[in-house]
Amino acid sequence: MKHLFACLLLACSTSLFAAPLKVVASFSILADISERVGGERVAVHALVGPDGDAHAWQSRPSDARLVMDADVVIANGLGFDTWLERLAASAGSRRVVLASEGVKPLDQHDDHDHHGDDHGPLDPHAWQNVANVRIYARNIATALIAADAAGESYYRERLAGYDAELAALDADIRQRFAALPEEARKVVTSHDAFAYFGAAYGVRFLSAAGVGNRSEVSAAAMARLIRQLRKEQVPVVFIENVNDPRLIERIGAEGGARVGGTLYSDALSGPDGPAASYVAMMRHNADTILAGIQP
Amino acid sequence: MIELFVSPFTDFEFMRRALAGCLALALGATPVGVFLLLRRMSLMGDAMSHAILPGAALGYLAFGLSLGAMTVGGIVAGLVVVLAAGLVARSSILKEDASLAAFYLMSLAAGVLIVSLRGKNLDLLHVLFGSVLSLDDGSLLLIAAITSATLLALALLYRPLVLECFDPSFLRSIGRWSPVAHYGFLTLVVLNLVSGFHALGTLMAVGIMILPAAAARLWVKNLPAMLVCAVGLAFASGLVGLLGSFHLDVPAGPAIVLTAGLAHILSILFAPGGAFGARLYRRTHLEA
Predict the structure, then answer these.
(1) Which residues of chain A have pLDDT under 70?
(2) Spatial contact of A266 and A27, defined as CB atoms under 8 Å apart
(3) Higher pLDDT residue, B206 or A5?
(4) Which residues of A touch B250 (CB under 8 A)?
(5) Taking the mean position of all CA atoms in its chain, how far away is CA B45?
(6) In angstroms, what CA-CA distances link A199 with A106, A186, B169?
(7) Hey, what long-range contacts does A173-182 have (CB within 8 A, 24 or more apart)?
(8) Do A242 and B121 touch (CB under 8 A)?
């Protein structure tokens, strides 16, 4: 890896003279996409790191300084990380680039109650559909080019490579789920992060919503979900990397479903984890779900 | 009727577990709350519940969502604050309440600092708000164990504690029991707050300790009756709160504590020791 990096550096030695473009992204998934597009012309910093939950981020003064010094500030948008827009405004920074611009948003679905959920009416977790991330990558490339016109051909080349990889990933996941009968494709997760994944790849996600991130759980919401699990005979429940696992374990145990492993929804894992990059995360999630629902 | 009151518990194991947790808390934390009340230390419960935060947070950061680490961390932090406050109170001109306030505030600030320093994971906040609906075997056993230990210790310390409540100077004058009773009792407070925080979170744990005790004080005068009454009220609050959460779709922890609060307000209005007690119960008073 190090060698490859060194080779790349040599190959584009012209860029060695320019200091890398300083990019600040709100959370780990956006940072990974930016790195893939920006290559060594950018230095990316994620404000909310691996396994972190951007819903509940409390920004620190050092974050404000990072945002102030940044050449490009990238947020997800769709109400997911409005704190970054506020932070950028108070730090006197330029406009924030919204990576999700042009994505067809899904409504935050309202099967259950959302006590104290501050997403707003749109579901922000658009990156769970790989097709959307191809748009993310394009938006980020546009922003990088706007800030660093000299690197335009470089960014375009990297974008094309990444886009091809994403397209292949998208097709692969789609095809593997399509191979299963529709009634088998249903699972339970602990919060509403997978609506885009479900819509794109034909999986029904019943979420312990209202069991959402910030709110305290009501017994009624838990009972509803357990009843639903029993009725529909959902085979498997999944834990997410940003939530308290005990709740979903309890729900699974009572609904007669087994716990199928950890899904990564709003954050990547650390570098040694199974979801160190966006592509790895999507592969891991697809593998985990498929392993869970295949009898 | 059965639909309303029984089937939530027969249909769902998590409701039975939550109820068992409430029973254990009512038996352990509430008697401790009664003594806190009688020693005019009700607010100390609140202070202590904040003091255990950094220990639990450190335990979480070092070992993840481990019941043992967070429990030990919480207990250690609580005891350090209690002991430090006691030492300062003895060796300086500050009274114990002032030094306790000073140390718990430092402890709380350290806790908030630790949480937000590595505040990347919401798990911790989730845990700090408690999870009475997802009590696993480990948490239930821990709460039950702390309750058993508390009941035993209260039985042993009953005499000196009662003395200390009503005549601390006499207890001090007759010898070495005073510090044993004092620190033993404060240890019990810390233990029960930690057990309460597994079920209800640090913010709500004090509620189940103090509110039923305060309500019981309004109804009865002698101590054994007060203990029984407080435990009964605490358990009833747990039961009603859980049913409320089940039928009205509200969060369980606050529902339980608010039910206890409602019982307290009703007691203020209607109990013999309450605001209108003298008028409501005049005849019995004259007869008595």
Answers:
(1) 1-18, 55-58, 93-94, 109-120, 190-191, 207-216, 241-244, 295
(2) yes
(3) B206
(4) 218, 220
(5) 7
(6) 9, 12, 73
(7) A173/A130, A173/A201, A173/A282, A173/A286, A174/A200, A174/A201, A176/A286, A176/A290, A177/A201, A177/A202, A177/A203, A177/A286, A177/A290, A178/A202, A180/A290, A180/A293, A180/A294
(8) yes
Furthest CA-CA distance within chain A: 64
Cα angle for residues B64, B61, B21 (degrees, 5° grid): 55
Find how far residue A49's CA is from the centre of its chain.
Answer: 12
Rounded to a whole number of angstroms, the distance from the CA of B70 to the nearest CA of chain A is 14
Q: Which two tokens stand for residue A172?
A: 């692969």
Question: How far apart are alpha carbons A262 and B123 in whole angstroms?
Answer: 14
The overall longest dimension of chain B from CA atoms, in Å, is: 65
From the list B15, B116, B129, the residue facing A219 with the nearest CB is B15
Asked whether the beta carbons of residue A218 and residue B251 sit closer than 8 angstroms, the reply is yes
- Long-range CB contacts for residues B200-203, cutoff 8 Å, separation at least 24: B200/B25, B200/B130, B200/B132, B200/B253, B200/B256, B200/B257, B201/B127, B201/B128, B201/B129, B201/B130, B201/B131, B201/B253, B202/B49, B202/B50, B202/B52, B202/B53, B202/B56, B202/B128, B202/B130, B203/B49, B203/B128, B203/B129, B203/B130
Q: What is the pTM of this model?
A: 0.77
Q: Is B49:B202 a contact under the CB 8 Å cutoff?
A: yes
Query: Helix, strand, or coil here: A250?
Result: helix
Residue B254: closest C-alpha in chain A: A216
CB B72 within 8 A of CB B195: no
Range with the largest mean pLDDT of A67-71, B113-117, B125-129, B164-168: A67-71
How many C-beta neighbours within 10 Å does residue B60 have?
23
- What was the pLDDT predicted at A183? 82
Count of all residues that appear for chain B in the document: 288
Instruction: Specify the pLDDT at position B236.
Output: 97
Partner residue facing A250 (CB), from B11, B126, B134: B134
Judged by DSSP in three states, B251 sits in: strand
Q: How far is CA A186 from CA A29, A40, A180, A236, B184, in A?
A: 25, 41, 11, 8, 54
Instruction: Tally the residues of chain A.
Output: 295
A-B contacts at Cβ under 8 angstroms: 103
Which of helix, strand or coil describes residue A237?
strand
Contacts with B251 from chain A: Cβ below 8 Å: 115, 215-218
Residue B121, SS3? coil
